[in-house]
Amino acid sequence: MMTPTTQEHLLLPPRSRISLIVTGEEWLRRLLLLLVVAFLLVGVLAPLVPLVVRSLSDQNGRFVGLENYVRYFNSPGLASSFVNSLTVATVTTLLAVGLAFGYAWAIARTCMPGKGFFRAIALLPLFAPPLAIAIGLVYLFGNKGLVTTGFFGFFERTLGLPLAYNIHLYGMNGIILGELLYCFPQAFLILMVAASLADARLYEASVSLKASPLRTFWVVTLPGMRYGLISAIFVCFTLAFTDFGVPKVVGGNFNVLATDIYKQVIGQQNFVMGATISILLLAPTVIAFVIDRMAQRRQMAVLTSRSVPLHPRPHPVIDTVALVYCSLVAAAILIVIGAVVYASFVDVWPYRLDLTLRHYDFRHVGGGGWAAYTNSLWMSFYSALFGVVIIFLGAYIIEKSRTWPLLRHFAYFLSMISVALPGLVIGIAYIFFFNPKSWTLAGFSIPNPFAFLYGTMAILVLANIVHFYTVSFMTATTALKQIDPEFESVSASMRVPFYRTFARITLPLSLPAVAEIAMYLFVNSMVTVSAVIFLYSPQIRLASVAIVNMDEAGDTAAAAAMSVLIIAACLVARLVYTVVVHQLNRRTQAWRLP
Amino acid sequence: MDNQAPYLQLQHIHKRFGKTVALEDISLDVWAGEFLFLLGPSGCGKTTLLRIIAGLEEPTAGRIVQAGRDVTQLPASHRDFGIVFQSYALFPNLTVADNIAYGLKNQKLPRAQIASRVQELLRLVGLQGLERRYPAQLSGGQQQRVALARALALSPRLLLLDEPLSALDARVRANLRGEVKALQRRLGVTAIMVSHDQEEALTMADRIAVMDHGRIVQIGTPLEIYQHPATPFVADFVGQMNFLPGLVSSEGFGVFRTGPFTLRVHGWQNHLSPGSEVMLAVRPEELRIERQDVGMSNVLLTEVHSVEFMGPHYRLLLHYQHHAGEGRAVNLVVHLPRHATMHHELRIGATVPVHVPADALRVFHLPQRSLP
């Protein structure tokens, strides 16, 4: 323990701080840190300023205080969206976290067969745009859906049973169902980690103290997964609260905040109200973010280095129940995704079920067709490439250097807050920040040096990198933390410059994380619609936006076809990632395994 | 080598982290070729001091002079030292040879020269033939030898060792102690090693600086530290020590009372007024069990509380009442050689006389009565 200072300690030594001589290497580190901070300032923080300013101004740019917010809550049509969004997000969160908890528990803690398969299926929705999930629901439960029409009247004709069932998809039911599928894999990923981090010794202690299984669950299992649960709850809430894709397709007349922003900005060109609703969209996610950070800070090491991993024991009844449960959930996911794939090949749903490729010929529908798809592939590739470089270097300079501690903390803070920014907010903030040729600040007009980005591929890539920054940053930071911090000290003692150690040691050791970040950025850039829908230009149309356009125009089959193309690209990216990591591990086996 | 000035001088080093003081006014001279230990419990600031010497951490105030040059403001990459960490910090993706050659390659030396230097270093640490292995394929002891070879590769004049042996098995640790010491002697390199293991310090060090709460409480040779600990903390931390509460007696110079007994101390210099409270200290191996109370002086009558067999010796836990009839019992640990036990009846509860040699007793005057 270090002794706390007393008054007399404070007086004794001279107050002058000793600072080390700044070497060329140190300047290089400072430059790197400054670049990262500059990127985050331009990408994350600065665009929020005009967004907030707009929400406090009228159409002519005059400051009006909270008038817009008052007006929003006084117009019943708009205010109800806020309640709707909260309702949808709450119900979705409860269902998704509950279902995912059981699913993760079954995989981590039972001996049921087929765990690898179930894990893969649970993650499948991550590779599909939320729009695609919604379109799958339309094909199943929409007015001409498979279930709604009783398998196109098949049961009625053959068995004489009216097995048609209408769940009244358009509206709250559809949104919740869609968000549930969208949020489930996210909750599952978090809870799977939490469920795997069990210390067998605690369970042995509980059994030896003659505690009942139920008591063990309450005293050992649940507290051990507490922080995972909190995290999953906030992630699901934020996603469901801010998602645009699902309500866009199956929302019907049920308005939520995300679709309101779209209508105000795209439909009515009312940017002031768009900004106001954006801030309302932002508020709960920021609160969720703050609570989650506070909870995570309290999480001391649940798993110590002495923990003994828990190996589940076979139990016929529990294993069977788990298998049945996981099969049902997996079937639901497969059916929805399968419906999209199937519908994209069906000639005229539900009348002519002959298979055809004609929906993949996008020449006669809007949205941009194959060019949009190619644009999306390039955009995702650039996002992955530049994103992984910026994010990994950013995490490296924050984690592994001792340069300018305050600025590093600030950079860390900026890196963490982007997760609280919904895609729509990023999109609309970017319009306000990048579109004007000049900004007006306190009566002065300053030329906007970033205006050239507007309407280019670069702004789309920037929006994606910022949108998916935090999760990638955490992956990089976690990988870097696992590398002995003394490597830097040893290198300095041998007068080896830091960039050489980065190239020869740090980067090679982090390659699996680098590959994971690149894959994550690519997949998410492919499936996202919310940030880019405000930013794409007529010259650079995008696949996910094309789904929105096709769906709006009633070309649902083409939208399904485009969804399938996106899913395919994501699965290929995932496959490439798997092969790369496998190769990496094979090459590095010698120094990984004792 | 220049024997006039110390090789390394630390002058009034202070280190604060926010409001906590990690190091307080550390001044220390290290002589060329010396093996100095920074010994202390965890959190005493010894590792921080080592990192400041290396330039991995900057002091809040103070001056560091190395080989006659003020290096206080030089970053680690501009100082002359090699360093070995408890975690070894070997690059897992490089072979043994590449790890050792890491700094050499950066100096743009000819390939053949690097290779021969690597071989030389491998021989030095006894790892010939393992150059193509990866660190994960080596035992802990072998890994630490590689780390040592790597630290010595650039022939630094200062070798810093941050608890290098703590992560190893007891047996490997004991072997490596001798090897590291011999290597340091042979190369004549000045070495500073951080440790919390007093046995390690006593066996390896030329001098030990004992640290506590960010200060150096005593510097001296291992024998000085063991024989003449400056404070009760040092006495307790280095080796084992029995502490007996005592009072200065009015019977004469160097006479003390503890409980009902009178103890005489040889060579007692301090002038304390009768009745002053003191702490008397004696090491377990210095106490002798008498067969019976024959009226010798400096004898305590104690009761046997427990007897533990330790292998080479027995560890007896004895106690006596400080104040007759009430108050705390004073515990006393005695190490009794195995062969000596046959003369004694050591049942639990038996009363045994313990002789406290007058030249083995140390006296600590405690102004604020702080028991270690």
UniProtKB/TrEMBL annotation, chain A:
Database matches in Pfam families: BPD_transp_1 (PF00528)
UniProt-listed GO biological process terms: transmembrane transport
CDD domains named in the record: TM_PBP2
Keywords assigned by UniProt, alphabetized: Membrane, Transmembrane, Transmembrane helix, Transport
GO cellular component: plasma membrane
InterPro entries for this protein: AminoethylPonate_ABC_perm-1, MetI-like, MetI-like_sf
Regions crossing the membrane: 31-53, 82-105, 117-141, 175-197, 217-241, 271-291, 322-345, 377-398, 410-432, 452-471, 517-537, 557-577
Broad class of where this protein is predominantly found: membrane
Signal peptide: none
Domain ABC transmembrane type-1: 82-292, 373-577
Family: Belongs to the binding-protein-dependent transport system permease family.
Protein name (database record): Putative 2-aminoethylphosphonate ABC transporter permease subunit
From TrEMBL, chain B:
EC class: translocase
Chain coiled-coil ranges: none
The EC number(s) this enzyme carries: 7.6.2.9
Source superkingdom: Bacteria
Position of the signal peptide: none
ABC transporter domain span: 8-238
Keywords linked to the UniProt accession: ATP-binding, Cell inner membrane, Cell membrane, Membrane, Nucleotide-binding, Translocase, Transport
A GO CC annotation given for this chain: ATP-binding cassette (ABC) transporter complex
Listed GO MF terms: ABC-type quaternary ammonium compound transporting activity; ATP binding; ATP hydrolysis activity
Protein name, UniProt field: ABC-type quaternary amine transporter
Native source species: Caldilinea aerophila
